[in-house]
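Researcher: I'm preparing a figure for a lab meeting and need a structural model of a single chain. I don't have an experimental structure, so a prediction will have to do for now. The sequence is pasted below. Please return the structure as C-alpha cells so I can convert it later.
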Amino acid sequence: MHEDDSIGRLASEIMRFTRIGARAKGMLTTGDLGAEFSALMLLFPLRHMGPMRVTELAEVKQADPSTISRQAAQLVKAGLAHRQADPVDGRASRLAVTEAGMAACHEMHEARRALLVQVLSTWPTERVETFTSLLEEFNSSVEALLRTGRATPQEKA
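Model: Understood. Here is the structure written out cell by cell.
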C-alpha cells in the first residue's frame, strides 16, 4: 500500500470517528447536568489545571473566546463553576469548578469509561495499549501543529 493510500484511509477513518463520536456521546448516561455537552467539557481542564480566565481556557481548548464565554456562563448558571477574582488583576475574573462541577466531572468520566470498556471488551489488552499510545502520539502531533504550525518529529519505529 502506498503512503498516500494510508493517509487517505486514515482521513476517512478520522471522519468516520467524528461522525460516530457525535452519535456515541448520546450514549453517555449522565442525566441532565444543566449545560450543553460542549460546555461540560470545559470542566475537565478547569479541574486539572485550576481556575483560569476565559481567554486562557479558550487557548487551552483552542476555541474562540466568545464561544468559551457563552459556555462558561452555562456552567455558572448550572452551579458547576463559579467566577472568582483574578489574584493578579482584580478587574478580571477566573472560572473555577464547584463541588457540583467536580461531581459532574466524575460522572462524565465514569460514563465515558463504561462506554469504552464496552466497546473494547473483545480487544486484547496489548492492542488497547498500542492503540492508546498511537492515538496519544497522533493527538500530540496535531496539537503541536495547531500551536506552532509544525508537527512534532517522531522517532521512526
